[in-house]
Design a protein that fits this description.
Length: 407
């Protein structure tokens, strides 16, 4: 592909797809853009699904990210409720086949299809998952009458659902297979604070608890654990992450078993003129030399900006500091940077790591005396001050000096 593409097809009409369309126009694309989505809904925001929507504070209309006229203004043609079923690469462009048999021809394709909820092999039909707006509305309707809820998974989604259910007065039991809640996001030391939030929120928490089967019930949901115990509730939701659904790319020859393999600008390895952004994309990581999937809300927008400029052969944007957050039990957990790169955790504010109050705790993840990440619990004002240090990989001494000046 030389010069500007005449037609860019974006597969996936969520946040990543919408932001890619916006960034392409912002970067100067003059050609056509088509947006393909599996859901019939216009793009909507997913973070409120486990929080404001689930508690009933918001109606579904408040989750919208775009109005119909947004796409008219962007010059984007939408194909909603009509998912992609095959991609056929070609030397002079690509053909995308849709579920209704239509074909779109493009000289640039951006894949932003996100993930689908992971389920257990024998998961009963009445057990909820939470990935889409329809999922959230179904779970909210269940919580209107359920007196108790079993949450499988103590990551951010599971904890947010537990928090929302407690707000509604529902008794909550959380079952986590790992020994520490939110360990993938926070690491084992800081993850214990997330566990304390659950317990202090009057949630019955079971960690290191592996589910072996769902017990057949006529009313409610019961699971059996590896140690033989059984736990039940009126309703249940499984929040154990998501998986990419990429069978429609089988004919491309790309190995998608661990997400779509991409370079560090989102270009798909082995497919000329194809890029991927968001949860489904596994980008080369210049820090570790491996590939990494950034499954966070802000990452989709950050990657969209990179991809849009790469599509147009324009200079890349300034590197963004990875950021994510979770609202649970009346406080906000925030993460700046990449905790998984840290070798030790160093407290900066508060005493949560020493069994003191969770709220107000801020800690740095340090590797080789450099600050790789900072996380905080109910300390937004403090966490924000550390963004430049995380971006620069500043020495720990600088973070400690800053901590001494902040109250």
């Amino acid at each position: 592909m030389t010069g500007q593409p005449e037609h860019v097809v974006i597969v996936g009409a969520g946040l990543g797809g919408l932001r890619t369309a916006q960034q392409l126009r912002s970067a100067g694309l003059q050609g056509r853009i088509s947006l393909v989505g599996a859901e019939s809904r216009l793009p909507y925001d997913r973070p409120p699904l486990s929080k404001q929507l689930l508690t009933g504070e918001w109606g579904p209309e408040r989750t919208g990210l775009a109005e119909p006229d947004t796409f008219d203004e962007l010059g984007v043609r939408t194909h909603l409720g009509n998912p992609a079923v095959a991609l056929r690469p070609g030397d002079r462009g690509h053909e995308l086949e849709l579920a209704d048999g239509a074909a779109l021809h493009a000289d640039a394709v951006v894949i932003a299809t996100g993930l689908v909820a992971r389920e257990f092999p024998d998961q009963p039909a009445q057990v909820h998952t939470l990935r889409t707006l329809d999922d959230a509305l179904a779970l909210r309707a269940t919580l209107e009458t359920a007196g108790s809820l079993l949450v499988v998974g103590a990551g951010f989604i599971g904890a947010e659902v537990a928090s929302s259910a407690r707000t509604r007065g529902v008794t909550v039991t959380v079952v986590e297979a790992l020994d520490v809640p939110a360990v993938h996001a926070l690491g084992p030391q800081v993850g214990r604070l997330a566990g304390r939030l659950l317990i202090e929120g009057e949630v019955e928490l079971h960690t290191g608890a592996k589910i072996t089967r769902f017990v057949e019930e006529t009313d409610g949901v019961t699971v059996e654990l590896a140690d033989g115990r059984q736990l039940g509730a009126n309703a249940a939701v499984v929040g154990i992450g998501g998986v990419p659904r990429l069978d429609w790319l089988a004919g491309t020859g790309v190995d998608t078993s661990r997400g779509i393999p991409c370079g560090d600008t989102g270009r798909v390895h082995g497919l000329e003129g194809v890029w991927a952004v968001g949860d489904v994309a596994s980008w080369d990581d210049p820090v570790t030399g491996a590939r990494h999937r950034h499954e966070h809300w802000t990452s989709a927008g950050d990657q969209a900006a990179v991809v849009a400029r790469d599509v147009l052969a324009a200079p890349p944007p300034q590197p963004a500091v990875p950021y994510c957050w979770s609202d649970q039990f009346g406080l906000k957990i925030q993460i700046l940077g990449r905790p998984e790169l840290g070798e030790e955790v160093v407290p900066l504010h508060g005493t949560g790591l020493d069994s003191g109050p969770v709220r107000g705790t801020v800690a740095a993840y340090v590797a080789g005396d450099r600050v790789m990440a900072v996380t905080g619990f109910g300390a937004a004002r403090l966490v924000a001050r550390y963004r430049p240090l995380v971006a620069a990989g500043a020495p720990l001494a600088e973070a400690r000096a800053m901590a001494a000046t902040l109250t």
